[in-house]
Design brief:
mainly alpha, 6 helices
């Protein structure tokens, strides 16, 4: 019996979800670049940025994205070298 392992199975932390939302909505980083960075499928990124999954984080991000822009930007500093 062969067991198939999905390489994209990864549970994202809230911090990672906020990083994805910030990079997508504020820095215009496409899902095809975000997916390998966070080791998830492009569809996972699309679902997060469209609010279909992790709705709790999505709502908080949209509510506070302008008020807390500095804090969100601090979250992505570790990914700037990988993406830009």
């Amino acid at each position: 019996m062969t067991i198939k392992i999905n390489p994209y199975v990864a549970k994202l932390t809230d911090q990672q979800v906020y990083q994805i939302l910030y990079l997508y909505h504020e820095k215009n980083v496409l899902p095809c670049y975000l997916a390998p960075t966070f080791n998830v499928a492009k569809s996972t990124i699309r679902n997060i940025v469209n609010g279909k999954s992790r709705q709790d984080c999505h709502e908080v991000f949209l509510k506070y994205r302008y008020k807390m822009k500095g804090q969100f930007e601090e979250l992505v500093t570790s990914y700037k070298d990988k993406l830009f």
